[in-house]
């Protein structure tokens, strides 16, 4: 009984949940190649929706805007997130630490509608007082970075906490200056986390509808905003084509990232082993 | 000692950059939101009136925006407004989503945790992969799957389960399917992280002593994974309350959630003060369960010491 339960029920349950998770993806990939607008019957193979995709100026423009926004957001979030993580992990005591930690974490739990609304009110206020900024790409980036920074901080923070501080102390004992310690020791050690922070905030930004809807100006629409507009109107297989290309890209990026991480870890382990060996042989003759 | 490895100006810079950013882009917007929630609605040119009465020079807070959330008219019955209904509906659907995610995700996380250590990273990555592809597109796909002429209805009609299409899209069902689908990984990951650390020898011991698998599960596994359950529940519940996209795409017209109400007040009614007041109350809704959560985890951490 126990063995059967563990063996079969588990496998069936997992298969069903994975099917649930992947069904929409599979659905979009299959129907992006459909020859007609139909959603339930596959009437024949064609690339017509991919052709329609390249001709849809709204989607193409939205895509390039989203790429730019997501790139800047990713870089800004990774940098600010690293700063914030560093502050939280390394500086145990400074004025307003609790407030700082609360403010960094808050966007993680704040509804996006509230973030979007409050930032919109800020931008409108700033525009009334300074005549700047116009709502558009710049304001979208600011909004996305607020969210991306919080996620980036969480990722980098966990790397910083895992890191072995004794290497830094050893470098300092050997006379490295603080900034040298940071750039030569700390940064390479948390590089994986920073890259993950970049990827995560890039994805969040590339995917965000709500904050963009609040902060974008007339005629400035990110890809998700365009898709959201289409989606409210009905079924459009062009979007399935866009989705298929996105799924392909994400899969490639994730797999390359995992391979890179695995290779880095192995390299580091080899180096540590070599250093330990060298260390022991150096000590032994004495 | 450890924190003194940067000179004072360097330290100030490292703290100052993210701190300054947060003060300008987090705290200031929130204060503006709070401010606008306490003023009167303005006219077409100015969406809200200043808080200073220009004739008397006095500060005047207006509570009407908050009152109007709780009652339709002066002296009218409390808590019988569309706003309160929207808040309650949002909480209710967020709870349903969290419960569904728990029911589906718990066994799933449990089986991953009990699978061979060598396959676990791959199994987890398969959970994460859809999460990295566009959330909007995945929700959109459900529209096609659940539509009257969609895959599921066609399948059911082909098998003979039903002769006419069953309406699933634009109902509570489609909305809950979408929300459960999107938030399921947020439940699975904390549960897995908790379950994988569990000592399964405790279960073996219980079996040896003659406990049935179900009873052992209920008496040992579940209590030990309480922290994971609570964490997963919060991670699903909190973003679900404010969800805007899924109800707009999959929900019915009668099921307006509070995120949508805020949006409509802001852009359709152009009532900035009321939209702000609604948003402030919404923050309150999120803060209360969070505070309880931190108290609970804080107590648990203390109890361990």
Q: Based on Cα principal axes, name the global outline of chain B.
A: globular
Please write the string of helix (H) and strand (E) elements of chain A.
HHHHHHHHHHH
Number of helices, counting only DSSP H or I runs of 4 residues or more of chain B:
13
Specify the oligomeric state: heterodimer
Percent of residues in helices of chain A comes to over 70%
Number of helices of chain A: 11
Q: What are the secondary-structure elements of chain B, in order, as H or E?
A: HHHHHHHHHHHHH
Q: Quote the beta fraction of chain B.
A: under 5%
What percentage of amino acids of chain A are in beta strands? under 5%
**Through-space gap between termini of chain A:** 63 Å
Q: Roughly what percent helix of chain B?
A: 55-70%
> Quick one: biggest sheet of chain B?
none
Largest sheet of chain A: none
The greatest inter-chain interface is formed by:
A-B, 83 and 86 residues
Low-confidence stretches of chain B: none
- How many E-type strands of chain A? 0
Radius of gyration of chain A: 24 Å
Uncertain parts of chain A: none
The total strand number of chain B stands at 0
Global structural class of chain A = mainly alpha
């Amino acid at each position: 009984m126990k063995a059967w339960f563990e063996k079969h029920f588990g496998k069936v349950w997992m298969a069903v949940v994975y099917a649930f998770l992947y069904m929409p993806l599979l659905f979009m990939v299959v129907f992006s190649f459909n020859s007609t607008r139909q959603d339930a019957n596959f009437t024949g193979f064609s690339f017509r929706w991919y052709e329609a995709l390249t001709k849809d100026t709204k989607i193409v423009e939205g895509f390039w805007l989203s790429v730019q926004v997501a790139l800047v957001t990713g870089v800004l979030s990774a940098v600010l997130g690293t700063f914030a993580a560093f502050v939280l992990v390394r500086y145990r005591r400074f004025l307003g630490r609790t407030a700082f930690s609360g403010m960094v974490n808050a966007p993680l739990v704040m509804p996006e509608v509230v973030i979007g609304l409050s930032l919109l009110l800020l931008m409108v206020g700033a525009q009334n007082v300074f005549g700047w900024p116009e709502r558009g790409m710049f304001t979208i980036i600011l909004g996305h970075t607020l969210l991306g920074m919080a996620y980036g901080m969480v990722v980098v923070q966990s790397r910083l906490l895992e890191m072995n501080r004794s290497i830094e102390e050893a470098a300092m004992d050997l006379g490295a200056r603080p900034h040298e310690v940071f750039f030569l020791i700390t940064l390479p050690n948390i590089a994986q986390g920073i890259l993950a922070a970049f990827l995560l905030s890039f994805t969040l930004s590339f995917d965000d509808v709500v904050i963009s809807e609040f902060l974008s100006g007339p005629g400035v629409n990110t890809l998700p905003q365009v898709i959201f507009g289409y989606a409210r109107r009905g079924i459009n297989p062009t979007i399935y084509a866009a989705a298929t290309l996105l799924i392909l890209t994400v899969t490639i990026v994730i797999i390359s990232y995992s391979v890179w991480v695995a290779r880095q870890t192995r390299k580091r382990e080899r180096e540590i082993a070599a250093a330990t060996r060298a260390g022991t042989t150096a000590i032994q003759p004495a | 000692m450890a924190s003194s490895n940067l000179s004072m100006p360097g330290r100030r810079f490292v703290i100052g950059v993210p701190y300054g950013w947060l003060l300008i882009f987090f705290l200031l917007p929130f204060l503006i939101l709070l401010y606008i929630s306490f003023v009167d609605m303005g006219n077409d040119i100015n969406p809200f009136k200043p808080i200073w009465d220009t004739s008397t020079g006095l500060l005047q807070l207006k509570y009407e925006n908050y009152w109007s959330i709780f009652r339709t008219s002066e002296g009218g019955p409390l808590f019988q407004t569309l706003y309160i209904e929207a808040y309650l509906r949002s909480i209710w659907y967020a709870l349903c989503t969290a419960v569904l995610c728990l029911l589906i995700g718990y066994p799933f996380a449990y089986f991953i945790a009990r699978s061979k250590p060598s396959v676990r990273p791959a199994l987890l990555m398969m959970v994460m992969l859809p999460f990295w592809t566009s959330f909007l597109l995945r929700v959109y796909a459900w529209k096609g799957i659940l539509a009257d002429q969609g895959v599921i209805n066609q399948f059911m009609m082909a098998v003979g389960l039903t002769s006419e299409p069953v309406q699933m899209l634009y109902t509570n069902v489609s909305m809950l399917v979408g929300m459960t689908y999107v938030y399921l990984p947020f439940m699975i990951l904390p549960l897995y992280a908790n379950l994988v650390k569990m000592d399964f020898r405790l279960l073996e011991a219980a079996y040896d002593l003659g406990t049935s698998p179900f009873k052992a599960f209920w008496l040992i596994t579940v209590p030990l994974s309480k922290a994971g359950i609570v964490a997963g529940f919060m991670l699903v519940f909190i973003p679900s309350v404010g969800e805007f996209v899924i109800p707009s795409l999959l929900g019915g017209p009668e099921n307006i959630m509070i995120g949508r109400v805020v949006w409509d007040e802001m852009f359709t009614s152009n009532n900035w003060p009321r939209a702000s007041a609604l948003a402030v109350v919404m923050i309150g809704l999120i803060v209360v369960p969070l505070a309880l959560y931190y108290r609970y985890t804080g107590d648990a951490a203390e109890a361990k010491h």
